[in-house]
Design a protein that fits this description.
Elements: H1 2-21, E1 31-37, H2 41-52, E2 57-60, H3 75-79, E3 94-95, E4 104-105, H4 141-155, E5 157-158, H5 165-176, E6 186-187, H6 218-228, E7 232-235, E8 238-245, E9 251-258, E10 263-273, H7 276-293
Parallel strand pairs: 1-2, 1-10, 2-7
Antiparallel strand pairs: 3-4, 5-6, 8-9, 9-10
Helix pairs in contact: 2-6
Length: 294
């Protein structure tokens, strides 16, 4: 029990350290060209593209911002506590598979609550659609190929990771049976870059953050570069409670509540809701429900 309490304190200490990362962030951010709700795969990509095009971007993230040193291999602290997901007692959530089924408490709706979102504990597998998958689509594989290549270069997708001995033997037997094999593409660097380290083959990719920055998470591959432009700021530990409407009913900003209770409004010409499928739908539905009630 004492060890568990120590690990719990370790999680909270990590979060306090992460809070200091945001100490330079001012509560006076009141406007931007683009405000992005959520910092995961979609939010990070939008922030990266807009910042590199010269737009001022503010990314609002509900969860904390962790450092590489916070990503340990402690299963209890990382996977069984509130490192990536809030405790059910702190933020009760319910889930049901169908409208006729009773709802039960579940964390199923969450992907991750931290800067980088679910890409932080993603395993890095990065598959393309095959040409045959585009049957019936208005575009084909050739149209999408340059975009695949650009995204893979940005994330650091490779097929050159060291192969597990069992996988190598398995592939050898398949080839003997006439079956073609290839290594799965993964967004994990094999060589260090000026801003990210190389894979150290720790075997803790899925469900854990990357302590070297090798994994192509939104935090490492997208937001790091976006912030380096000087035109992107990330506000962590802040919940968007409402999308504000301006003239002609168009979104004109968001209302935000930080974890210290401070409330503010960020005005923007464009509002991007990228808080995963369920949280995005909840925020948009919440706005509609509020208007209906009024």
């Amino acid at each position: 029990a004492a060890r568990w309490q120590s690990r719990l304190r370790g999680v909270e200490t990590s979060r306090r350290r992460a809070a200091r990362v945001q100490a330079h962030m001012t509560a006076a951010i009141t406007s931007a060209d683009v405000v992005v709700v959520g910092s995961g795969a979609a939010g990070g990509a939008v922030a990266y593209a807009c910042a590199h095009k010269g737009l001022r971007v503010v990314v609002v993230e509900k969860g904390p911002e962790y450092k590489r040193s916070d990503y340990t291999h402690d299963e209890l602290a990382i996977c069984r506590r509130n490192f990536f997901l809030p405790y059910m007692a702190d933020e009760p959530r319910t889930f049901r598979e169908h409208a006729v089924h009773p709802a039960g408490k579940s964390n199923f709706a969450w992907i991750s609550c931290c800067v980088g979102g679910g890409t932080v504990h993603w395993s890095g597998f990065s598959y393309r659609f095959a040409a045959a998958d585009f049957a019936g689509w208005p575009i084909d594989f050739a149209t999408l190929l340059p975009h695949y290549e650009r995204a893979e270069a940005l994330l650091g997708v490779t097929r050159a990771l060291k192969v597990h001995p069992f996988a190598a033997r398995f592939a050898e037997r398949l080839r003997a049976l006439g079956q073609a094999t290839e290594q799965s593409p993964r967004a994990i660097l094999t060589d260090a870059t000026p801003t990210r380290g190389a894979c150290n083959y720790c075997d803790f990719c899925g469900s854990y953050g990357c302590e070297t920055g090798a994994k192509g998470s939104s935090q490492e591959a997208l937001l790091l570069s976006a912030r380096a432009t000087g035109r992107c700021e990330v506000v962590s530990r802040a919940v968007v409670t409402e999308i504000v409407k301006g003239e002609a009913g168009r979104a004109s900003g968001v209302r935000v509540v930080r974890d210290n209770g401070e409330r503010s409004e960020i005005r923007a010409g464009v509002v991007v809701v990228a808080a995963s499928a369920i949280e995005s739908a909840r925020l948009l539905t919440l706005k509609a429900a509020t208007e209906d009630a009024a």
